[in-house]
Amino acid sequence: MHLTRRQMMMTGVAAAGTLAMPGILRAEEKPTITISHGAPNYQALLAELSTGFSAQNPSMTVKFSADGDNWDPLLNNTLRAAVVGALPDATWQSLTYAGILADRKIVQPVNSFFNGDIKNLQAMGLSTPMIEATTVGKSIYGLPFGTTIPIVYCNMDLLRKVGYSKPQPPSTWDEIHEIGAKVSALGGNINGGYIEYTSTNAWIFQNLLASYGGRMMNEARSAIAFDGPEGLQALQTLSRFGDISTNDMTVDQARQAFNAGVTAIHIRSASGTTSVAKAAAGHFELAVAQFPLPNPNGRLVGAGHGFFMFTKDPEKQKVVWEFMQFAASPQGQMILAKNSGYMPVNLKALNEPSFRDAYFKINPYHRAVVERLAITGDQFSFPGNNTVKIVQTMADDMHDVVTHRTKPDVALQRMATQTRKLLG
C-alpha cells in the first residue's frame, strides 16, 4: 500500500504522540514514598516536612501514615507488617529499634548512599554517637532526626504557695520530694508531683538507673545488670512519688493535670516543652530543671529517633534517601524545632549562630537541656524477640511500686526474674 505525503505525515504525528504519551504519564506520576509513624500528635510537623521536602524536590512526594500512637505500638505493627509483606517504604522510628529491625532483615542498609564513609555523614553535621545508634555490625540503617532527654517541669506558683523561695527550681530528688509533699498536703485535687514511669521502653527507669551509675545489661549483653544497688535506688526514687501524688493517674491524665495548674512537679521528656509552655502561658509560671544526677559518674539516656528505609525498589530508595538527608539538614532540623520539643541532632546547624538563636527563641527552656547532651547516650533495648513484653512487665511492676502495692526490693527481684525468663 502506498501512502500519500499527507497520510505519511499524519502517521508520523500519531506515532510521535504514541511515543510521547508514556513520557507524559511518567512526568505526572511523581515517585511517592509512604513513611509510617507513631506520632499522631505531630501532624503539623509531618505536614511541614512533607511540603518542605516537595518544595526542594518537586519531582518527589512523601506521604506519612499513622501506624500506632507511640514508639512501642509502631514497632509491634511494623513487625506484624513485615510478616505479611505489608511494610511501607520507610518509617520514623526510635533509634533503639535499629538492632531489632536489622536482625530481622526488615530494614535496608544505607551505606551505599554515602559511599560507606562515616566522614560523609559527619560532614552533614551528625555526631558519631548518634550515627552509632543506627549502626548494627558494619552497616548503618538510617539517619537520626532528633533526640530528647528527661527534664523536670515545675509550677513555680504552687511551689511558692507552700514557701519555696529559691529563684531556681528544685535540683535534687530530696528537694523535689520535700516540696512535693508540702504541695500535696494542700489537699483537694492538688498533686505534689508525677514522673512518667510508664514511658516507652522503660525510658524513665533507664534514666533513673543511669543517673545512679547503673546500666540495664553488662557490656556483652549476656546478663542483666539493673538488679543491683542502682536499680534499687531507682525504684526507691519512684516509690517516693507515691507519697506526693494524690491520684493514680495515667500519663495523659497527669499531663492534663500539670497543664491545668494542679500539679507542682512533672517529670517527662524535653520534647514536651512546646506544648507545656503554651498551656502554662498566662496561667502559671513555668520553670524547667535538669534531671537530677545523684551519682557524680551518673549519666542520662536520650531517646533518639530517625528515619529507616524498608523499600527494596531502587527508585523509591533514592527518594527515601533524599528525604532522610532533608530531615537531617538545617531546614529539616528547624522544622523539628518549630513543631516539637525535640532537640536537633545536626551539630553543624547548632553551631551556626543564626540557627542556634532561632532555636532557643522557639525553645528557650532547652538552653540548660542542651548542656546535658555531653553526658547523654541513647536508650537501651533488650535483645531477642520479647523486648516489648519485657518493658511492659517492667511498667506494671513500677506501677505497683508507685502506688505502694509492692516494695521496691520485691519489685526489683520480680523485674529481674521476669526479664531473665523472657530473655531465655
Automatic annotation (TrEMBL):
<dbReference type="InterPro" id="IPR050490">
    <property type="entry name" value="Bact_solute-bd_prot1"/>
</dbReference>
<dbReference type="Pfam" id="PF13416">
    <property type="entry name" value="SBP_bac_8"/>
</dbReference>
<dbReference type="InterPro" id="IPR006059">
    <property type="entry name" value="SBP"/>
</dbReference>
<keyword id="KW-0574">Periplasm</keyword>
<dbReference type="GO" id="GO:0042597">
    <property type="term" value="C:periplasmic space"/>
</dbReference>
<keyword id="KW-0762">Sugar transport</keyword>
<comment type="subunit">
    <text>The complex is composed of two ATP-binding proteins (UgpC), two transmembrane proteins (UgpA and UgpE) and a solute-binding protein (UgpB).</text>
</comment>
<keyword id="KW-0813">Transport</keyword>
<dbReference type="InterPro" id="IPR006311">
    <property type="entry name" value="TAT_signal"/>
</dbReference>
<comment type="function">
    <text>Part of the ABC transporter complex UgpBAEC involved in sn-glycerol-3-phosphate (G3P) import. Binds G3P.</text>
</comment>
<keyword id="KW-0732">Signal</keyword>
<comment type="similarity">
    <text>Belongs to the bacterial solute-binding protein 1 family.</text>
</comment>
<protein>
    <recommendedName>
        <fullName>sn-glycerol-3-phosphate-binding periplasmic protein UgpB</fullName>
    </recommendedName>
</protein>
